[in-house]
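Would you kindly consider the sequence and fold I have copied below?
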Amino acid sequence: MPYKYILLIVFSWSLQVGANDTINIASDEWCPYICNEDDKPGILIEIINEIAEAQGYDVNFTLMPLARSLRLLQQSKLDMVLALTKEHIEAFDLRQSQQVYGGLYNDFYVSNETQWKFSTIENLKNFIEQGNILGLINGYEYGSAVSRLKETSGEFIFLASGDKPLSSALKMLSKQRITVLLDSRFNVEYEIQDKKITNLQYAGTQGKFVPLYIGFAPDTTLNYISAFDKGLIKLRKKGQLSKILQRYGISDWHSKK
């Protein structure tokens, strides 16, 4: 089945959600959920394409920094932004899917030469304040504990940005330009295998599984949101979701806690 998403650098905003035949979506690259590959566009891109096609919509997808896409969605210049936490939804006054579309963990990675392991936020704070740099991604939400750390120890934190921030941050970690990287195992492990990076190791997890949602523009109707949620339920029930996930080597988040 051909995919109807189009990668665009710039596109015109003619947004009235549900009033035209094209859904405008933007997010940064965050494989395996959101990728920039023709044969594997990403789990969420494939899911949205399947649901949109069943509803009679085309999809225009734009790769852009998450912080910018959130501002545009807040202004109703986009229809959706993918893979958002509840904190994102609340901070930008967005509409939220009721179904969960993936999830994340706060996982730490370091180079093979670094002996540090995460135990507590205080342990992390002490480590980076010795002159070690923690890498995060600009616009991402990591929970209240990490938000406080950004406020108190910001001079020891590097914020990766751009269309492919995780890929850039992993390169920096591999070259030891940053000391620790915080992201989710699903995405880091996928990138490590895809890019054949061999000098990085897992260094612990903070907190529990965090569900991710689709963020919709503030003026989106509940019926429109419900149509996508029902579409995901249908994909799972018919086994189509399982087939998509298998292509990326990911298990269904439905059973995560």
Q: What stands out?
A: The chain has nine helices and eleven strands.
